[in-house]
């Protein structure tokens, strides 16, 4: 009670204090207006990407300068050219030349000491001087022109190789984003370190992929809306975000240190780093390793994605505006001709091309909000107070679309720059590189790369949109405004390509010319991995409806080809219970799944080791349960979409998945070794293992313990779940189709009678039972994609190239439901197999056990177990569904297609059970 009273007194007091505090700040500062905010978070909860669009809507409502709160930080947003000019001139420019402290800058950028992140002051001024005099000076840029030219030629060659057709007249489908990104990454990384990271003929693929992923992550983690940066209180909770940023910083530093050490060894190199190392020798205190790594990082972070993304948007617009493409091409053909490739000095005579680039920068600025600034002291903008430490965002994206500055701002119109106004006219209207003292020092280089690469693409190829496809114009979240859906296009080499004869050996060397199967659009870095949500076989079936019976995907860096037709599969695989009720007429509710699974597990494990693991009268219950769990886990972890298997780069992060799999392997080996040792002690046992042990005595080098354990595991993994799951699906279908159950029972009662139990040799005279099993295998293959294969050399399937080391998935699930081969494929109809066609007819249409040389060696055993068990269940019991319950048919994820919801049923013993007295 007393406590409550206290609250009543304290609360108004607190509110009063808070009001006074806020009121005094308001009175003291004349802050820009802004939308209503929430306690604690301020406006953070509203910051859904794309943020530049949201902030443009606020500026329409609150004016060209307004304020927000991101947690405890005040934010001021500027959205007009005149206020940008006011901010970036005179004393204001100096005051506004600092950057706010951000977690990424702390942990990735050496505690805010790099040129892009350092606060305004002597250290930053020095770094800028080094950038403009030692790294990005016109002289040094010209020095590296050969790299830009070489990388552009290599890109053109790659496109040529991918699009080369014999008659030279047809268009080919290509993915542009990876090519553009490789170009700009190589360009900067080569200038900085002398290394080629991407494409053919590269240095260290794993490190290269990791680097690209880190650049991607840093852009995402530096987005303007990361709570942890603005709600310092979150840190008290052991913030995950902060941990992740730290890990990114550590990985990045490792790469940079490695690159730096490599350059140190290679003293004669002509790279930025070797130049900085020579300066280190003169001024070792100033040019420390951290300073050099900071400069490397600034170049490599700020110079790579930015240019690639701009190029992608530029090409997107050329595809959307064919008349612009045409005009740019005419200009190039006229000024450069058709015999030589456009070169950097030519850019000066190609004003329209330059205008295309400017128009791209206007509508698609890579940094739509520039990079945040913060005033080092209180300042005034537009008559309002902007207190020190406020985060200042300039919405360049909104300024670039301001109707007061631009006619029809949404239109991509390069001609608008043909107005005789000089570049100065645009200083505060068009600012893709920022403004003021902290304007991008790489603007010259960025523009050069983009313009030269774009000109080359226009000069060397014809371009068209992919037929029937609208180009998706959505923008990604994060600091850089990427295109969400990577650009694809149809492309055809122009005659000049053959004249150029660049890298001809390379272009026409057969090894590199692949006509890969088509496929859905992919994302940078991850490829299609992010799309792989289970059940994957259904997803892949939808893809095959769209892209054809053979299509390709990328799981990270691994190419995957999926086959979904019997003829292509043929092409790939040829050439080279406790139901005791007192009243026999009552149905009892039972759970079938555990019984079926005990049956098949015991069956195999007894064969292999002589032990009964499950049910009554068992050996070692704990071990048995552990074994079952391991089998389950191994199937889950072997699913086709586990990132760690396909993105080798993830392993560098001390991958959790890999650790877990290792632990699984160890537990499994412990069990196998124990079972093996027990069999060894029991010399007279009649088990598979005893037999293998006797072979071991004859050929000890060949039949090692590891080989025997491997065989045990293969049998025990492949032979247990598979049969249990098939049995469960078979029973599920009998429950759903009582007429099928009835027909199967009549067959058994007629052929076997009601006095003895069905036995294995009987199966031969029970064709309908066999058909039920086939139909179950058809609709519910336990391994819907079989088990992934890998090609050991380049091969051709369906006219397409499948390069070596590609993962090949055969979607048996989809083939077995293909309406071309099966009438009413979704219907469970065992009679479809009584058509007189022999088993050969089905070889490539029905393949629950796989196909080719690696077909399941346990197929016959599996079929026997399933058919005999199913026959026995039909013969001995009546079956019904649980009243009022729909049977859930959902499939589980993982390599084996289990039934998600374990099967339950109502069950009643038939009279035969009494006679059998088993
Ligand atoms: C299309 C290409 C590029 C675009 C659109 C771009 C854009 C930008 C923008 C908007 C800023 C922030 C400027 C501000 O705060 O006002 C910036 C800063 C920066 N950029 Fe670029 N950039 C590009 C290419 C490059 C290249 C090629 C390099 C170097 C190799 C580079 C290095 C930097 C650095 C070091 C900064 C930080 C400057 C500082 O804080 O003092 N950029 N860039």
TrEMBL record:
<keyword id="KW-0349">Heme</keyword>
<dbReference type="GO" id="GO:0005506">
    <property type="term" value="F:iron ion binding"/>
</dbReference>
<keyword id="KW-0408">Iron</keyword>
<keyword id="KW-0472">Membrane</keyword>
<dbReference type="InterPro" id="IPR002401">
    <property type="entry name" value="Cyt_P450_E_grp-I"/>
</dbReference>
<dbReference type="InterPro" id="IPR001128">
    <property type="entry name" value="Cyt_P450"/>
</dbReference>
<keyword id="KW-0479">Metal-binding</keyword>
<keyword id="KW-0560">Oxidoreductase</keyword>
<dbReference type="InterPro" id="IPR036396">
    <property type="entry name" value="Cyt_P450_sf"/>
</dbReference>
<keyword id="KW-0503">Monooxygenase</keyword>
<dbReference type="InterPro" id="IPR017972">
    <property type="entry name" value="Cyt_P450_CS"/>
</dbReference>
<dbReference type="GO" id="GO:0020037">
    <property type="term" value="F:heme binding"/>
</dbReference>
<keyword id="KW-0812">Transmembrane</keyword>
<protein>
    <recommendedName>
        <fullName>Cytochrome P450</fullName>
    </recommendedName>
</protein>
<feature type="binding site" description="axial binding residue">
    <location>
        <position position="440"/>
    </location>
    <ligand>
        <name>heme</name>
    </ligand>
</feature>
<keyword id="KW-1133">Transmembrane helix</keyword>
<dbReference type="GO" id="GO:0016020">
    <property type="term" value="C:membrane"/>
</dbReference>
<dbReference type="InterPro" id="IPR050651">
    <property type="entry name" value="Plant_Cytochrome_P450_Monoox"/>
</dbReference>
<comment type="similarity">
    <text>Belongs to the cytochrome P450 family.</text>
</comment>
<dbReference type="GO" id="GO:0016705">
    <property type="term" value="F:oxidoreductase activity, acting on paired donors, with incorporation or reduction of molecular oxygen"/>
</dbReference>
<dbReference type="GO" id="GO:0004497">
    <property type="term" value="F:monooxygenase activity"/>
</dbReference>
<dbReference type="Pfam" id="PF00067">
    <property type="entry name" value="p450"/>
</dbReference>
């Amino acid at each position: 009670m007393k406590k409550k009273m206290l609250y009543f007194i304290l609360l108004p007091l607190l509110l009063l204090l808070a009001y006074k505090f806020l009121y005094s700040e308001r009175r003291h500062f004349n802050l820009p207006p802004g939308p209503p905010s929430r306690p604690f978070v301020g406006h953070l909860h509203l910051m859904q990407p794309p943020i530049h669009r949201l902030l443009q809507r606020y500026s329409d409502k609150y004016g060209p300068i307004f304020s927000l709160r991101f947690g405890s930080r005040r934010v001021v947003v500027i959205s007009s050219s005149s206020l940008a000019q006011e901010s970036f001139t005179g004393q204001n420019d100096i005051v506004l030349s600092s950057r706010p402290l951000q977690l990424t800058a702390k942990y990735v950028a050496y505690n805010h000491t790099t040129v892009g992140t350092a606060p305004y002051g002597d250290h930053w001024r020095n770094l800028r001087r080094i950038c403009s005099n030692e790294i990005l000076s016109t002289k040094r840029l010209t020095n590296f022109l050969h790299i830009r030219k070489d990388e552009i030629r290599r890109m053109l060659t790659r496109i040529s190789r991918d699009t080369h057709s014999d008659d030279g007249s047809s268009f080919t489908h290509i993915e542009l984003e990876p090519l553009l990104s490789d170009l700009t990454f190589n360009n900067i990384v080569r200038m900085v370190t002398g290394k080629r990271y991407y494409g053919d003929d590269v240095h260290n693929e794993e490190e290269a992929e990791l680097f690209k992923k880190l650049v991607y992550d840093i852009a995402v983690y530096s987005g303007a809306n990361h709570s942890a940066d603005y709600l310092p209180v979150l840190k008290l909770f052991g913030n995950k975000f902060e941990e992740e940023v730290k890990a990114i910083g550590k990985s990045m530093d490792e790469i940079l240190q490695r690159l730096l050490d490599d350059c140190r060894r290679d003293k004669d190199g002509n790279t930025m780093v070797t130049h900085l190392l020579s300066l280190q020798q003169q001024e070792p205190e100033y040019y420390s390793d951290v300073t050099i790594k900071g400069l490397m990082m600034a170049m490599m972070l700020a110079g790579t994605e930015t240019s690639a993304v701009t190029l992608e948007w530029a090409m997107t617009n050329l595809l959307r505006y064919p008349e612009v493409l045409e005009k740019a091409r005419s200009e190039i053909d006229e000024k450069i001709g058709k015999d030589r490739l456009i070169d950097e000095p030519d850019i000066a005579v190609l004003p329209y091309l330059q205008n295309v680039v400017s128009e791209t920068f206007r509508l698609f600025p890579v940094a739509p909000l520039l990079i945040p600034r913060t005033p080092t002291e209180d300042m005034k903008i537009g008559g309002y107070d902007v207190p020190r430490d406020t985060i200042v965002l300039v919405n360049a994206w909104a300024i670039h679309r301001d109707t007061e500055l631009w006619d029809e701002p949404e239109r991509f119109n390069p001609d608008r720059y043909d107005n005789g106004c000089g570049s100065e006219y645009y200083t505060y209207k068009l600012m893709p590189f920022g403004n003021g003292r902290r304007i991008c020092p790489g603007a010259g280089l960025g523009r050069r790369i983009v313009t030269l690469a774009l000109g080359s693409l226009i000069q060397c190829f014809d371009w068209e949109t992919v037929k029937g496809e609208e180009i998706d114009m959505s923008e990604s979240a994060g600091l850089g405004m990427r295109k969400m859906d990577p650009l694809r296009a149809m492309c055809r080499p122009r005659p000049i390509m053959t004249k150029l004869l660049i890298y001809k050996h390379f272009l026409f060397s057969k090894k590199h010319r692949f006509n890969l199967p088509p496929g859905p659009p992919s994302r940078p870095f991850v490829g299609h991995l992010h799309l792989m949500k289970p059940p994957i076989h259904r997803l892949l079936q939808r893809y095959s409806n769209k892209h054809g019976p053979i299509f390709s995907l990328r799981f990270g860096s691994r190419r995957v080809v999926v086959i979904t037709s019997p003829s292509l599969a043929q092409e790939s695989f040829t050439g080279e219970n406790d139901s005791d009720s007192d009243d026999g007429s009552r149905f009892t509710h039972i759970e079938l799944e555990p019984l079926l699974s005990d049956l098949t597990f015991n069956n195999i494990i007894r064969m292999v080791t002589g032990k009964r693991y499950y049910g009554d009268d068992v050996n070692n219950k704990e071990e048995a349960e552990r074994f079952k769990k391991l089998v389950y886990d191994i199937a889950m972890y072997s699913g086709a979409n586990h990132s760690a298997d396909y993105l080798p780069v993830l392993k560098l992060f001390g991958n959790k998945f890999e650790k877990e799999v290792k632990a699984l392997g160890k537990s499994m080996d412990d069990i196998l070794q124990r079972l093996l040792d027990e069999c060894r002690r029991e010399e007279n046992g009649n088990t598979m293992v005893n037999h293998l042990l006797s072979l071991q005595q004859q050929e000890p080098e060949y039949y090692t313990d590891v080989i025997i354990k491997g065989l045990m595991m293969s049998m025990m993994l492949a032979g247990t779940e598979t049969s249990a799951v098939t049995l469960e699906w078979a029973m599920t279908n009998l429950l759903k189709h009582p007429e099928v159950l009835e027909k199967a029972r009549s067959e058994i009662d007629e052929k076997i009678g009601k006095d003895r139990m069905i036995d294995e040799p009987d199966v031969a005279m029970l064709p309908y039972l066999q058909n039920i099993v086939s139909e179950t295998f058809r609709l519910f293959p336990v391994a819907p994609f079989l088990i992934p294969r890998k090609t050991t050399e380049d091969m051709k399937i369906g006219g397409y190239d499948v390069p070596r080391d590609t993962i090949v998935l055969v979607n048996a699930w989809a083939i077995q439901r293909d309406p071309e081969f099966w009438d009413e494929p979704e219907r469970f109809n065992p009679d479809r197999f009584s058509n007189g066609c022999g088993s050969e007819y089905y070889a490539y249409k029905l393949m629950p056990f796989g196909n080719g040389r690696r077909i399941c060696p346990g197929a016959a055993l599996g079929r026997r177990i399933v058919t005999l068990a199913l026959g026995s269940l039909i013969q001995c019991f009546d079956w019904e569904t649980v009243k009022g319950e729909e049977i859930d048919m959902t499939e589980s994820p993982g390599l084996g297609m289990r039934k998600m919801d374990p099967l339950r049923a109502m069950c009643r013993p038939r009279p035969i059970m009494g006679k059998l007295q088993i």
